[in-house]
Amino acid sequence: MSATLGTLLQQIEPGWSIGLFENLEAAGLESSGPWNNAGTGHSALCELNYAPASPDGTVDPKKSLGINEQFQLTRQFFAWSVNQGLVKDPKSFIHPLPHMSFVQGEAHQRYLKARYESLSAHTLFDTMEYTEDLDQIAEWTPLVAEGRTQRTVAASRVVGGTDVDFGSLSKQLVDGLAARGADVRFGHRVTNLVKTGSGWRLTVKNHASGETFEVDAKFVFVGAGGGALPLLQKSGIDEIKGFGGFPISGVFLRSTNDEVIARHEAKVYGQAAVGAPPMSVPHLDTRYVDGKKALMFGPYGGFSPKFLKTGKLWDLPGSVRPGNLLPMLNVAKDNLDLVKYLLTELTATNSKRMNAMREYYPAANPDDWEMITAGQRVQVIKKDPKKGGVLQFGTEVIASADGSISGLLGASPGASTATPIMLGLLKRCFPNQYSAWEGKLKEIVPTLGTSLDSNADLYHEVKASTDQVLKLA
């Protein structure tokens, strides 16, 4: 998020002074790191939680269409970054990969068919395929079909999906920021923010020397992942009052068998368990990290009070304030399914974890897999006039009334929608300048403000051109 925003600002206001402070020793090591997330270019092609069924069994495509439209803007930003030389080789961060959904049982079959019929009628999903034939599924993804006795199954597929290494992309964008004059400092932690007459005064600690210094800024963006909530709370802005966060951690199983890895070429998403957060939807994923193909399954839910993998055990209790205590207590009361899910996951044995994977890869051998720790995600808790507090599974942009400070809370679809989220933030925080920036922004993201789903010719033209630049065709 920060790398995207900095890159956009550097283009539209090249005379502005930009500084970036990163707590760790390089960019993209926390939530953006390739082993800390699924690497899915989230465009709602396979993620079933973006298209819930209504009580009558119909599927509303609205949310899926919105997320897909957002990812189209992100793809255009990717292509522009390659054309500008900010990213030297698109294969260093993005690869073409089919996106699939897979379900079992008659009820889930009916749902997936209804979802297919709802989405495939739209331009953005016009290449979606659907089958209930296990032999066809075996052609699409051999591991999912191998050894399967349950034949009441269904799958949908879009060949034009992507795998994205957001860690690699973040590093390259930050390198581009530094090369064009931004003051980028790693191993520096922002410890406090105080409002001044003209903006904000930041207190920054240099880990190497232990020294602290102050920086004045007219605008601040807090893009610290799970660490954004405590910093926004320190700012004291009214807009953060009532917000809390609930951290959810997890682990993946990663294959150590090159023969197994070679036989799978897709991201296969299934149905979430009852009470499970969207970031815990099970998926059997091909990944490309540092140019090498990998295979992982998960994530399995877990819990830690840390807001970041590199955070502190005091993060969760330290975030409690008088204004968010009631919303947090109400969320705990109203989300017993989530509590039950986490307790079940925390007590799961290795055998139970393997059984969960065998729902998607029946012939899985435990000797072929190792456990790795996934990233921390802090789900947003916010005030609600009716319930007192609600748990929100998406992303939330927080901005002060004067637009001088903003930050991002939440998780999925996250980095996949960084471009439209940051474009929206620019419009919100710089309302007087935004109209003058639109021309340049449309050079970066040509279809800004246009619905691609409503314009099939434009969609296919833009997709073909970005595919060519990103070497996805």
Structural features, described:
The structure is a single chain. The protein is α+β, with helices and mostly antiparallel strands and 473 residues long. It has a single domain, classed as FAD/NAD(P)-binding domain, CATH 3.50.50. The chain is built from 15 helices and 20 strands. Strands 3, 4, 5, 12, 13, 14, 15, 16, 17 and 18 form a ten-stranded mixed β-sheet that branches. Strands 8-9-10 form a three-stranded antiparallel β-sheet. Strands 11-20-19 form a three-stranded mixed β-sheet, with helices on both faces. Strand 17 and strand 18 form a beta hairpin. Helix 2 crosses helix 13.
Q: What is the CATH C-level name? A: Alpha Beta
Task: Classify the secondary structure makeup into a structural class.
Answer: alpha+beta
Largest sheet: 10 strands, mixed
Q: Give me the CATH architecture, please.
A: 3-Layer(bba) Sandwich
Number of helices: 15
CATH topology: FAD/NAD(P)-binding domain
Low-confidence stretches: none
Taken as a percent bin, the fraction of beta residues is 15-25%
Integer tally of domains: 1
Compute the separation of the termini in Å: 27 Å
Number of strands: 20
Please tell me how large the radius of gyration is: 22 Å
User: Which outline best applies?
Assistant: globular
Mean pLDDT: 93
- How helix-rich are the residues, as a percent range? 25-40%
Pathway: Carbohydrate metabolism; tricarboxylic acid cycle; oxaloacetate from (S)-malate (quinone route): step 1/1
Organism: Galactobacter valiniphilus
Protein name: Probable malate:quinone oxidoreductase
Catalytic activity: (S)-malate + a quinone = a quinol + oxaloacetate
